[in-house]
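Moderator note: this is an archived Q&A kept for reference. The question asked for a predicted structure of one protein chain; the sequence and the answer are reproduced below.
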Amino acid sequence: QVRLVESGGGLVQAGGSLRLSCAASGLTFSDYRMAWFRQDPGKEREIVAAISASGSTTYSTDSVKDRFTIPRDNAKNTVYLQMNRLKPEDTAIYYCAAVPDAYLAYVPSAYTYWGQGTPVTVSS
């Protein structure tokens, strides 16, 4: 059974940092593109960052491009979202997602597996 389990969310002041983790099991982790999405209640889910199976290619949306990184550790079956210089507009539930690496995937519908999410709240 495939599971993606996020952790590391919480409450942080603007300008602070958080490191989210997504631990994967039940799949060959090194074959999957991984991504982080975020969603505020009542709003559409949007991509934050993605990383190829090997880690050689990354993507991040413009609003976080200079602040967030998405490292992965294939030996630990874990992908991270390192969030620095957080802003109140980063407040959302953050979801980890996985898809076979054959696809150029930036929209939620492209992803095969999802975690349950971890909330991030950034206070002013």
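Archived answer notes: The first strand starts at residue 3 and ends at 7.
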